[in-house]
Structures are given as structure tokens and as C-alpha cells.
């Protein structure tokens, strides 16, 4: 009778561990939305740095990311963010559009967690 009792608790112990592991794995694989305003994408690093300086002068922090295109060309992407909501990113996109250097640029919002 004691042998029949021992396996049941062992199964109960292992089942929650498996469930917990699956839950942890699925939650760690889920990407959190991160909205960025892409202000510019240029092939010259100095141009990217100058654009970044213009944002900094307007008290807007930004980051430069590099991206290598399929044709091998290297791009410097100037982005502002990340923001947790698209509404917040839209607000900053509007603020950036008021800066003379960026009034005619085609800034857009990107979500780095979105599937491509």
C-alpha cells in the first residue's frame, strides 16, 4: 500500500514542475512591444551623428542603430524611444516634426516586437 502511495506524490510533484517550466518558457519567448520613432536612415555616419545632435539640442534622446541591407550597404538608423505605447511614440513623432531639420523627413513608427 505504501508503494502505491509514493508514486502518486512523485507524479504530482513532477507535473507542476513541467507546467511551470512550460509557462516560464512561453512567457520568456513573448516579446514586449517597443515602439520607436525612426527619424532617419542614412548611409553616412557623420550625417547620422549630425541628426542626432539636432535632436539632442532639442532635448530629445536618440540612438543610432546600424543595419546591413541585403545588398551589403550599411545604414545608420536614427531612432527615438523605446516607448511602451504607440500613442506615446506618435506624440514624439509629432514633436520631432516641429524641428526644422526634420520637418520634411518621412519619420515613422516601428514596433521591434512585431513579427516580420
List keywords for this structure.
24% strand; 4 helices; 116 residues; disordered N terminus
Distance between the termini: 57 Å
Count up the helices: 4
Overall 3D form: globular
Topology order in helix (H) and strand (E) letters: HHEHEEHE
Strand content: 15-25%
Biggest sheet strand line-up: 2-3-1-4
What is the overall pLDDT average? Answer: 82
Structural class: alpha+beta
**Major sheet characteristics:** 4 strands, antiparallel
What is the rounded Rg?
24 Å
What level of helicity do the residues show? 40-55%
Which regions contain 5 or more consecutive residues with pLDDT less than 50? 2-26
Summarize the structure.
The chain is α+β, with helices and mostly antiparallel strands. It contains four helices and four strands.
Structural overview:
It is a single chain. A four-stranded antiparallel sheet has the order 2-3-1-4. The chain is globular, with a radius of gyration of 24 Å. The longest helix is centred in the N-terminal third of the chain and has 23 residues, at 7-29. It is an alpha+beta fold. The N and C termini lie far apart (57 Å). The protein is built from four helices and four strands.
